[in-house]
Amino acid sequence: MLRSFGATVTAESRIDPTVRIWAPWNLTIGRNSSIGHHVDVYNVAPISIGDNATVSQYSYLCAASHDLADPTMKLTTSPIRIEHAAWVCAKAFVGPGVTVHEGAVVGACGVVTKDVPEWTIVAGNPAHEIRKREINA
């Protein structure tokens, strides 16, 4: 269904039926990736989710804001990238222009307004580095 509205979605992508996607044509999701229930994808600008990445339940991916210096508060947009093997945990907020780099984790309820370095775990409001992520062999 999403493909018919311009989304780039693989057969191996898993998107819960309760996900809200503002502009399907601005969504790309890779192989073996998932978007959990009740995630809000406000993709006024493109949002891309790499392979083997997860966006957990109730998260908010917000690719737009407003110019606070403009008296009319003009809409501003900037793409979001969730790279390969990254995880955006439950109820997290990812703001405009943010890249969650490969293997990074945004902890539950984290508020991310700046890029998250690869293989780093961040949490809090505003999100700050907790530690490096290591994968056991």
From TrEMBL:
Family (UniProt): Belongs to the transferase hexapeptide repeat family.
Record's keyword annotation contains Transcription: no
Record gene name: maa_3
Protein's organism: Stieleria magnilauensis
Record SUPFAM superfamilies: Trimeric LpxA-like enzymes
Superkingdom of this protein's organism: Bacteria
Keyword DNA-binding: no
EC class of the enzyme, as a word: transferase
Record-level Gene Ontology MF annotations: maltose O-acetyltransferase activity
Protein name from the UniProt record: Maltose O-acetyltransferase
Transmembrane regions listed in the UniProt entry: none
E.C. code: 2.3.1.79
Record's keyword terms, sorted: Acyltransferase, Transferase
InterPro entries: Hexapeptide_acetyltransf, Trimer_LpxA-like_sf
